[in-house]
Amino acid sequence: MSARPSGSGSAEHAIPVPVGLPVPEVRGGRTARPPRHVRVREERDILAAVRAARDAGSTVRALGSAGSKNDCFRTGGTTLHLDRYDRVLAIDGTRVVVQGGMTVGALNAVLGRHGLALPTHGEWAGATVAGAVATGTHGGSLRHGILPSSIAALRLVTADGRVLELNRGSELFEHAGVSLGTLGVISTVTFDCVTRFHLELVMRAVPFDRYLRDLDVESRRHEFYSAVWIPTARRVITFAADRTDPPATPVRRRERFCGTTFVLSLLSRRLGLHAFPDRWFRHAAVDACEHILSPIRDRSHRVQLFRLLSSDWKAAEFAVPAAGAVETLSALDAFLAGHRHALTNPIGLRASAGDGFSLSPCYGQETFWIDLFFTGQNGFATTLRGLFEDLGARCHWGKHVALSPEHLQRQYPRWDAFRAARRALDPAGVFANPFTRRFGL
Ligand SMILES: Cc1cc2nc3c(=O)[nH]c(=O)nc-3n(C[C@H](O)[C@H](O)[C@H](O)COP(=O)(O)OP(=O)(O)OC[C@H]3O[C@@H](n4cnc5c(N)ncnc54)[C@H](O)[C@@H]3O)c2cc1C
User: What is the C-alpha separation between 157 and 46, in angstroms, rounded?
Assistant: First the structure.
C-alpha cells in the first residue's frame, strides 16, 4: 500500500505500533490523575492516554466533531481530541486508509483528487470518519449500507494497551463496526472506495398518499432516494438521484432540511396552511457524488450554536424494517393527527440496505429511517416511544435515543454477544460513559 500526501498534513509513513502487541513504553509514564484533555497527533498519543486512564482507574473517550444529538461523546474522564489526527495514510487502488479524526468532507476532497469516492455516507460533511462509523451513520439508499458497510478494516486501540487490526469477516469486526467507542478507540479506518461518480438529483413534491403508493418502487428504482414529509400539509418532498455524466456546469442541490421546508412546515402547523404549489420544489441538480450526498457543510461550532439555540428540541431517528415502511408511516400519520404541535421540523425519510454489524439498526434487514424533531412537552416523547416500541423499531445511536434500554436489547439479536465482547475487551469500563452505561453497553 503506497503512502500519499493528504488532507491537512504531509506524507505519512508506516503506523508505528506492532499489531496486537502490548505497547512497551508510554510517553509521560504513569500518572495518578490523567489529563482531562489530550490532543492526539499520532497513534501513540491514544495509547498513552488509554493506558494512563486505565492505570488511574479512570475513563477515556474519543471525541469526533461532537455532532451527535445526545451525550454519547461526553466523559467525566479524559477526552481525546482527534481533530489533528486527520490525514489519509495510504491509497492503494480503491483501498484507502484514514486517521479517525478526518472529517468526511476532508476525506471526500482527497478522494476526489484521486478519482475516488465513498459509495455512500451521511449528509453532514463535518462528521469525522470514526465518529460516523461509531454511531452507524447512513445516507439514503437501499443499494448501499450504513458507512461501516464500506469498511475493509479498522485499527482499534483497546483498554489493555494493544492495537488490534480488525478485518472484515471477523466476529470482532462485526461488533466494532457500530460500537459507540465502547470497544476501544478507532485509530484508523480502511475504506473500500469506488470510482468517483456524478449524480443527477431530481426534487419534487408529491401528495403523501402517492408517496406511500410509490415508495417501494421508487426506493428500488433510484440509487439514492430520500424525502422530507410535512404531515400537516400532506406533502412529501422527494430527492431521487442517479448516476449521470459529469456536467459542463454543476448545479448545486438544495438541502432536505432548509429554510423553505422549515417555514412551510411551521405555517402548515400553526396557520393550517395545507397546500403549497408543488412547482416550488421542482428542481434538478447535477454534481459530483460527494456534493449531492453530503450537502451540509456546516462546521462543528455552527452545529453547536444551533444546538444551543434549539436546546429544547429533540432529534430522534427511528429504524424500522423497510418491508413494513408503508404501514409504519400510516400509523405515524394517524398518531400525529393528535399531536400536530409537537413537531418542530418536517420529518426526514430514507432507507438503507441491511448489514451484519451487531449494534447496527440495519442488522439483518433492509431498513427504513424516520427522522423526527420534536419538543419534549406534554409527554410527547413517552407516547412516541410507545408507538415505535409497538412497531419494533430500533434507532440511530447518534441522535436522541427515544427507546427504552429494555426494548432495544430485544431488537438486536447480537446484543448479548456484543456485551460479552465488550466485557472481554474492557472489563474495567475504561471506555464507558453515562450514555453507554444507560443502555447496559
Ligand atoms: C448537521 C448534521 C447532519 C447529520 N446528518 C446525518 C445523516 O445524514 N445521517 C446520519 O446517519 N447521521 C447524521 N447526523 C448524525 C451524525 O452523523 C452522527 O452523530 C456522527 O456520529 C457525528 O460524527 P462526529 O464526528 O460528530 O462524532 P461525535 O458525535 O463526536 O461522536 C459520536 C460517537 O463516536 C465516538 N467516537 C468518536 N471518535 C471515535 C474514535 N476515534 N474511536 C471510537 N469512538 C469514537 C464518540 O465517543 C461518540 O460516542 C448528522 C448530524 C448533524 C449535526
Answer: 7
For residue 136, give the ligand 1 atom closest to its CA: 11
Residue 297 Cα to ligand 1 middle (Å): 14
Give the closest residue (by CA) to ligand 1 atom 36.
131
Residue pLDDT, tens place only, 69-112: 999 999 999 999 999 999 999 999 999 999 999 999 999 999 99
- Look up the pTM and report it: 0.93
Whether the predicted pLDDT of 143 surpasses 90 = yes
CB atoms within 10 A of CB 286: 22
* Distance (Å, whole) CA 116 – CA 313: 37
Which residue is listed with cell 506524507? 11
Q: Taking phi first (over 0 means left), then psi (-120 to 50 degrees means alpha), and beta for anything else, what does residue 20 get? A: left
pLDDT one-digit tens code per residue, 116-134: 999 999 999 999 999 999 9
Distance 213 CA to ligand 1 centre (A): 33
Ligand 1 neighbours (beta carbon < 6 A): 61-68, 72-73, 82, 100, 122-124, 127-128, 130-132, 134-135, 137-138, 180-181, 185-186, 296, 298, 303, 396, 398
Q: How would residue 396 be classed by pLDDT, with cut points 50, 70 and 90?
A: very high
Domains of the chain: 37-195+418-438 (3.30.465.10), 198-409 (3.40.462.10)
Helices assigned H by DSSP within 92-207 = 104-113, 129-135, 171-176
Are the CB atoms for 293 and 119 separated by under 8 Å? no
Residue 422's alpha-carbon distances to 64, 327, 358, 418, 441, in angstroms, are 21, 36, 12, 6, 8
In ligand 1, the atom with minimum distance to the C-alpha of 298 is 1
Name the residue at shortest CA distance from atom 1 of ligand 1. 124
User: Cα(first)–Cα(last) distance of the chain, in Å?
Assistant: 36
| The Cα angle at residue 63 between residues 11 and 394, in degrees rounded to 5 | 120
